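Last lecture ended with a question: if I hand you only a sequence, what can you say about the shape of the protein? Today we answer it with a concrete record. The protein is Glutamate dehydrogenase. Below, first the input exactly as provided, then the predicted structure, then a couple of comments.
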Amino acid sequence: MKRINTIVDAKAEIEKLKNPNCAEDDIFFQAMEEVLLSIFPLFKSDEVYSKNAKNAVIRRLITPDRVIKFKVVWMDDNNEVQVNTGYRVQFNNALGPYKGGLRFHPSVNEGILKFLGFEQILKNALTGLPLGGAKGGSDFDPKGKSDFEVMKFCKAFMRELYKHIGPRIDVPAGDIGVGGREIGYLFGEYKRMTSAFEGVLTGKPFFFGGSLMRPEATGYGVVYFTRKMLELDGKESLEGKVCTVSGSGNVALHAIEKLQQLGANPVTCTDSKGMIYDARGLDLALLKELKFVRRTSLEEYAKVHPEAAYTPVSEYPEGAHAVWDIPCYAAFPCATQNELNKKDAENLVKNGCVSVSEGANMPSTTEAIDLMLKNKICLAPAKAANAGGVAVSGFEMSQNAAMQRWSFAKVDVKLQETMEEICENVASTAKEFGVEGNYVVGANIAGFKRVADAMIAEGV
Ligand SMILES: NC(=O)C1=CN([C@@H]2O[C@H](COP(=O)(O)OP(=O)(O)OC[C@H]3O[C@@H](n4cnc5c(N)ncnc54)[C@H](O)[C@@H]3O)[C@@H](O)[C@H]2O)C=CC1
Ligand SMILES: O=C(O)CCC(=O)C(=O)O
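The predicted structure:
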């Protein structure tokens, strides 16, 4: 990359990196563009990054070390053969072993995993732990599959993946569609294939090496980050405030749990079919039963609580999402990428929302981010706000390596410290680069600098 003097130079260089023949890469490009444009102040102020083209840090950073793609063949309950595609994108290991989740969802393709892997590099750097960045998964759809089918798929998936991972090489974890159940099946097969009982996956069930609090970590971490961000920005705390949350999976339900513990009132959650709005406050025990045990739709919630409103996705005007139209003090998008668009951001601003904290990876579109920042919403970007999950994964790796088990309280204290340190680091980086209060730029610069310095130090 040539020397970049202006934002126009930066945009022109980024344009050259686009792959016009691959629509799947659009989402990866969205993630990359957000980062590269927002680290522009760094290029202007620090010659190591802007002038030292021999290191080609940007080109090296945006190109995955390798993309592993494999066939997964398994038998369903009718003894029919099923074929899926499996992937692992090992993106960058400048700071430590490749680390990042596995996603099982029909939308999974190489572009989505490249976007998630790229974000993971900078997120992992922000934790301060020795972790590189990776992501993987499959287009397998766990919805409607029996427990036995999920097990057979996981085992077939690991029979290919095990060749490429290891506790000092690459340590996968969960993401959408992959929780404790799936990690348990994957770990069982890894052990069978290698005879090694080692910390090769995180998010394991507690009885064979999982860390206490890993299931809660991402959702709790988002709330800890938000609490600190509001304090630093001199805003009122979350106590007694109405909050809106999207999603109803691992991240969303644990964010709701922590919000309730801090005295806030989370009133919404969503799944791919619709939204629950319960103004009296959500019945979390019921949500956990519906989503973690019965694995069923949110529509069931309204059958138990007819006072709550259920809005199916189909009933809402095109281009906006019902959940972001509910007035709130703080919003927590915790479902999936690009679930909060410009129209949604306008609704949040109109209704006086003070902060938006991204529990999901890249839930806000570029236009939504611009609009929220322009309107002075405190925006906690995913790579900082949801880093609690991978941080506790890092703690799980430490416990496994030392053959130790830490208490829930110990992990909780370390998680709170980590989220507060990330928040302070991001806030002070933004201030240092003249964009005080802009956590998006602060997170991108702070994460990028740590990885880039390691890449420059290791040479080409
Ligand atoms: N599990 C973890 O530790 C971490 C997860 N994340 C991110 O958080 C988000 C949620 O992940 P999890 O809660 O772990 O997954 P999950 O599988 O437990 O739940 C997924 C959630 O996303 C919703 N969802 C999925 N596709 C959707 C769609 N097309 N439209 C609307 N809703 C949809 C589901 O209804 C569900 O609420 C994802 O963006 C994931 O990458 C980020 C950091 C760590
Ligand atoms: O725990 C991990 O290794 C990764 C979690 C993850 O996939 C994420 O942070 O998006």
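Comments.
1. The two ends are 15 Å apart (CA to CA).
2. Residues 66-198 form a domain with the Rossmann fold fold (CATH 3.40.50.10860).
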